[in-house]
Write a structure and sequence with these properties.
Layout lengths: L1 E9 L3 H8 L9 H5 L2 H10 L3 E6 L14 E4 L3 E2 L14 E2 L2 H13 L5 E3 L6 H11 L8 E7 L9 H16 L5 E8 L16 H13 L1 H5 L3 H8 L7 H8 L5 E9 L7 E8 L1
Parallel strand pairs: 1-8, 2-7, 2-8, 3-6
Antiparallel strand pairs: 1-10, 3-7, 4-5, 9-10
Helix pairs in contact: 1-5, 4-6, 6-10
Amino acid sequence: MAQLVAGIGTSHVPAIGMALDTGKTAEPYWKPLFAGYEFTKAWLAREKPDVIILVYNDHANAFSMDIVPTFALGCAAEYQPADEGWGARPVPVVKGDPELAWHLAESLILDEFDITIVNKMDVDHGLTVPLSLMFGQPPAWPCKVIPLAVNVIQYPPPTGRRCYALGQAIRRAVEAFGPERRVVIAGTGGLSHQIQGQRAGLINSAWDHAFLDQITNDPETLARIPHVDYVREAGSEGIEMVMWLVMRGALDARVKELHRFYHVPASNTAVGHIVLENA
C-alpha cells in the first residue's frame, strides 16, 4: 500500500536556481543558504521516496491570466522545465507518476475538490528550485514528481483552511492507493516577501518564525488565518505560505520536526525550510 511518510516545506526563490545554475553556491552570499539544505539532501538520500507530491504556484508559464485554475494536478508522464524568459533551467526533465496522479485526481474530485486535470505543462522555478534544493544537481531526479499547482497569483486564492483540507484529502487518497509507494509531500513558497510597491523588500522574521512554530505544532490555528493577515504581515507575495498548509494537512496531527532552517535574505526574500515526519 502507498504510505505518506513525511512533509517538506521550502521557499522557491528564482534567484536560488540562478545561483545553482551559474556555480555561485560557494560564494559568501549564497553559501549559508545552501548549507541549510544539506540535512534534507542526506535525509532524502536515505529515505528514498518513490514520489514527491510537490505543491507550488506557477508564475504565468504553464497558465496565463486567460485560465487560472485554483488547484491543478499534473497527470502527465513528464514535464519540461519552462523557459521563463531567459531560457529553461539546465535541470533534468521531471518524470511524473501518471498512475498515482490519476488516482489522486479521481479521489479528490469524488471527495468534492474541483481539481483541474493537466496532461501537458511546463514547470517553472516554483517546482524546479525546490527539487534542486532537495536533490542538488543530479543527471536525473531520483524520484517521480506529481505537480500540484495552487493559484496564489490572481485574487481570490484559496483559503488556508481549504488548503489544509486539501492536504487531508490527499492523505486519504494516498492511503487508498493499492500499489506500494513511499510518498513525500512538499509545500513551497514564501516566507514573507514583497516584490513590488512601497513595501518592496519587506521581511517579517517574527511572523515567519511564528508560522514555522505553528506549522509543526498548531496547524489548525494556522489554517484559520485570513488572507488579509498574510498580506499585512508577510507582504503581497506572503500568501504563498498557504501552500505549506496543503503539505501539513497531509500529515499526522502530531509530527516529529526533523529539521528547521531560516535565512535572510535571499534576493530580498526570507527563506524558510522544514522537514516533518509522520509518527
